[in-house]
Design brief:
six-stranded antiparallel sheet, single chain, binds adenosine-5'-diphosphate, rod-shaped, Beta-Lactamase, Helix Hairpins, alpha+beta, 4 domains, 22 strands
């Protein structure tokens, strides 16, 4: 559940702009509505003011017509219905008031006395059908009255302004002026009013008696109705506002605002989606990073990065565990590193410089490092250039393996292998016992011949002690040697560890050659001994190595049995190279035939009549037990070269 919390927060953050944008749109709508309302109110106010003005204007004209009519009626009453006065003043009234279409003078009985403009007989004079009512009203009130509207055939709706005519206090008739609504509106309503409004005169039943407008009646706005008094009679003036173009502008503006808001909303949604994609990518990246970190942390191989100057820029947890120092203690550190071993400092520095030069062995190298607690361990280090994604070489990356355990295991395996070899050799030891005879044959026959020589001298009777001493001491040496051979072979068979010690190989070979002198003389073989300028030091059981040299030299001399005496040269050479000491025993004898070479080192293989066929087999076992190698090659001068290597001792 805890993991849901941040998601809720994130959703709220993403939804906030949408809510804000929605509120902006809503407020814009309210603002537009308020603007619209105030505009409508302004229009309404202007409409009322304008219609009141028009009503005042019409009222003024009708009042002034009524006044003039009253003046004419008063004059006619004073001076009698004189045609001249009626024509002159009536004509002036008609001329000044275009809405007054006709003036009629009636007698008290209702008959028409005069009329302006005059009407030919039979023509329509648009006489008010209620004229008798007017006479009655005028007589009774003695005041100006307005008649009800009535339709006429040619001039639309008309009404009459009626004033009574009194002569010497006597009611003598009425004077009536016919007023046309259409003409009144046409002349007395100004142009600007009709640009904005349509003006109508309607009666109490809603019948439109006259109207004035300049635009077709398509889009009408608000209207206002006002009593039209005078003439009264339930008449009203109705002004209706035309639909204004400002609405179109406002609507366009509103549409633009809403359009913009919508596009902003859309871009917000698009941005949210884009953010969603980015977030997903970010999360994937974070997961990937966490996975890589987990991989790095669970590595058992130590990883270490260094910059081009050799400063540590990164170590993984495995490396920290290996050396015991924490990441904070190691990163940024420059050589000498705390885990370098003081006694190997020079060698480690040399390797460090080789790495920075790019000369590190590509298949890794071994160093001894120390842990924080002082413990030493063998580290196998693989160095590789650290190349950034843009191809820049920024440092060196190393993987470090603690191989102490492995080395210990290898050593154990090697010792085990040695034991196995020894065991397998033990199996052949039975046969080796018979070899003893072969090995001992030489010293014993030497002893026998020295003894025979001494006895001869003694038999002759003139033997002096100083003459007998050298052969007798040689005899003693041979007897000792025979004893040593037996003891060594015995030890070799029994001992669990070879009795090895550091020895100078030159000396070992020299001793072996000294034992050969007598046999070489007998076989007329010249022995050339070439020793190494500096004697290689090897860790070996020197008696066994002497034995090997003796065996190889004896085989070589036997192989030269059938060649000319002058060519019987046995060359024994000691040398050293690449940490390996080499002993070569070269003869110029019969050589090793191909069919023989395959079995050369097999036990009991011999081409000699009295041969045991154990010599080479044992020699190889001895050399291999010393971690060396024994093999043979044909000698370019004829014959063969038997040679073996032994690892040089570091001490
Ligand atoms: P043996 O000497 O008793 O025969 P070895 O194991 O010493 O047994 O030798 C095995 C065989 O290897 C010999 O019989 C011989 O044929 C061959 N051989 C050994 N050394 C030489 C050599 N220097 N030149 C030619 N043949 C050799």
């Amino acid at each position: 559940m805890a993991s849901l919390k941040p998601f809720r927060g994130r959703d709220a953050i993403q939804i906030m702009p949408l809510i804000a944008m929605g509120m902006v749109v809503m407020l814009l709508g309210v603002l537009l509505w308020l603007l619209h309302r105030s505009e409508v109110e302004d229009e309404q106010r202007a409409l009322i003011q304008d219609i009141l003005w028009v009503e005042q204007n019409l009222h003024f004209h009708l009042a002034s017509d009524g006044e003039r009519l009253q003046q004419l009626a008063a004059r006619l009453g004073r001076e009698g219905p004189n045609s001249e006065i009626f024509d002159v003043q009536g004509g002036a009234l008609l001329e000044n008031s275009p809405q007054v279409g006709r003036i009629v003078l009636r007698r008290a009985d209702g008959s028409v006395q005069r009329m302006l403009p005059p009407v030919e007989s039979g023509a329509d004079s648009d006489i008010d059908p209620q004229w008798s009512d007017h006479i009655t009203l005028a007589r009774s009130t003695g005041q100006l009255t307005y008649g009800s509207p009535y339709p006429s055939a040619k001039r639309g709706w008309l009404f009459e302004i009626v004033v009574p005519v009194f002569h010497a206090g006597q009611f003598v008739g009425v004077l009536a002026a016919q007023v046309s609504f259409d003409v009144m509106l046409l002349h007395q309503v100004p142009w600007w009013f009709t640009q904005k409004y349509r003006l109508e005169v309607v009666d109490g039943l809603g019948t439109i008696l006259a109207a004035k407008s300049q635009l077709p009646l398509v889009d009408l706005g608000p209207s206002y109705q006002l009593h039209f008094e005078p003439p009264g009679q339930g008449l009203s003036l109705v002004a209706t506002l035309y639909g204004t173009e400002s609405h179109l502008g406002r609507n366009l503006l509103a549409a633009a605002i809403f359009g913009l808001a919508l596009s902003a909303l859309w871009s917000l949604v698009a941005m949210r989606r884009h953010m969603g994609h980015r977030l997903a990518a970010e999360q994937a990246l974070r997961r990937e990073h966490a996975f890589r970190k987990a991989m790095e942390d669970s590595l058992t191989v130590g990883m270490r990065a260094r910059d081009l100057e050799g400063r540590i820029t990164y170590v993984n947890p495995a490396f920290c565990r290996m050396v015991g120092w924490g990441e904070a203690e190691l990163v940024g550190g420059a050589p000498p590193m705390p885990y370098w071993v003081p006694e190997d400092m020079d060698q480690t520095y040399e390797m460090h410089r080789a790495v920075l030069r790019g000369d590190a062995p590509p298949d890794g190298f071994e160093l001894v490092f120390r842990r924080k607690n002082g413990e030493r361990f063998n580290a196998l280090v693989y160095e590789a250039p650290l190349i950034e994604s843009d191809g820049r070489h920024v440092g060196w990356m190393a993987s470090v393996l603690d191989v102490t355990e492995r080395k210990r295991a290898e050593e154990l395996a090697r010792q085990h292998q040695e034991k196995l070899q020894r065991t397998s050799r033990l199996i052949t030891m039975g046969e080796m016992a018979s070899t003893l005879a072969h090995e001992l044959n030489q010293p014993l026959s030497a002893i026998a011949s020295y003894a025979a020589g001494c006895l001869n001298r003694l038999g002759q009777g003139d033997a002096k002690a100083e003459e007998l001493t050298p052969p007798l001491s040689k005899l003693a040496v041979q007897a000792q040697r025979a004893g040593q051979i037996i003891r060594r072979i015995h030890d070799f068979v029994r001992k669990s560890e070879p009795s090895v010690a550091v020895c100078a190989l030159n000396e070992v070979v020299e001793v072996a050659v000294s034992f050969l002198e007598a046999e070489a003389r007998k076989r007329c073989v010249r022995v050339d001994l070439i020793l190494a300028p500096v004697s290689p030091r090897v860790v070996a059981d020197k008696i066994l190595i002497e034995q090997v040299v003796l065996n190889l030299a004896r085989n070589a001399m036997e192989a030269m049995g059938h060649v000319a005496r002058t060519e019987r040269v046995l060359e024994i050479e000691v040398s050293a190279a690449d940490g390996q000491a080499l002993v070569r025993v070269a003869d110029q004898g019969c050589g090793v035939p191909v069919e023989v070479s395959a079995n050369l080192f097999s036990p009991f293989f011999s081409t000699k009549e009295e041969g045991m066929g154990m010599g080479l087999n044992i020699c190889r076992s001895i050399i291999e037990a010393h971690r060396g190698r024994l093999w043979f090659e044909p000698n370019p001068k004829g014959g063969s070269i038997f040679q073996f290597t032994l690892p040089e001792s570091g001490e």
